[in-house]
Specification:
By secondary structure, this protein is mainly α. The protein has one domain. Helices cover 77% and strands 0% of the residues. The chain is built from twelve helices and no strands. The mean pLDDT is 86. It is found in: Cell membrane; Membrane. This is Transport permease protein. It holds the Pfam family ABC2_membrane. It is a multi-pass membrane protein. One of its GO terms (cellular component) is ATP-binding cassette (ABC) transporter complex.
Length: 249
């Protein structure tokens, strides 16, 4: 299975490398949001920190990943509609390799996007006191978040009847950070909005990443983050696998 997955992964990554504008396009919106909030709104937002880009960056990274996984749905949709997926299942390839190739492609391409966003943030003044282990923990959280959303993306990629339908699901995910602690502290929100913001996955993930990058004391946020990411990933994996079997037999 590993060798077949590697071949299929190589095919998808070559397609991306031939058209790197995909990665750049995914990075543009989060970067523009970061520029807008830091240089236009940043002076009017009270977060209790002296460097707003430091406060903002974790949420921007999650937005970039949510935007990037939409291309997983699109690539899978194109493989299904073109008949390439049906061709693959007639070959001596373990069927799970087909989906895992798309998942690993998403993981690698989103990692490149995250690096681009962090480099821009560094130019804007982002600084972190995290040590190497804390950076690895941040990378692990972002990786789990990517895997969770990617398996979620597999479902519309298999079910959608159009390109628009394959990618439309990502829009709520991209804007979910706005109703969280990503841009402003939840304490400033109205009661009902605050209740939602403090009990949705983005807030715990943002808080965990922020703690790792700047003070190292994660607390219970790390366990809440792991529960959300692993829970979403497992549920999405089950439904995606069932849809794959139903779609292709």
């Amino acid at each position: 299975m590993k060798s077949k997955t590697g071949v299929l992964l190589g095919r998808l990554m070559r397609n991306i490398m031939r058209s790197p504008d995909t990665i750049v396009t995914v990075a543009v919106t989060p970067i523009m949001m970061m520029l807008l909030f830091v240089y236009v709104f940043g002076g009017a937002i009270e977060t209790g920190t002296n460097n707003y880009v430091n406060y903002l960056l974790p949420g921007i990274l999650l937005m970039a990943i949510a935007s990037g996984v939409a291309y997983t749905s699109l690539r899978l949709f194109n493989d299904v509609k073109s008949g390439l997926m049906a061709r693959f299942i007639t070959m001596p390839i373990k069927r799970s390799s087909i989906l895992w190739a798309h998942v690993l492609t998403s993981l690698l391409s989103n990692a490149l996007t995250v690096v681009i966003v962090i480099l821009v943030a560094l130019l804007m003044g982002f600084r972190s006191s995290a040590n190497i282990l804390e950076w690895f923990a941040v990378a692990g959280i972002l990786g789990l978040f990517t895997l969770a959303l990617t398996w979620l993306a597999i479902i519309p990629g298999l079910r959608a009847g159009s390109m628009e339908g394959a990618t439309a699901y990502s829009y709520p995910l991209i804007f979910l950070p706005f109703i969280s602690s990503a841009f402003v502290p939840t304490e400033t929100m109205p009661t009902i909005v605050r209740a939602f913001a403090e009990n949705q996955p983005v807030t715990s993930i943002v808080n965990a990443i922020r703690a790792l990058l700047y003070d190292g004391s994660v607390g219970n946020d790390i366990w809440t983050t792991l529960a959300w990411c692993i829970g979403i990933m497992v549920i999405a994996y089950i439904f995606a696998s069932k849809e794959f079997k139903r779609k292709l037999g």
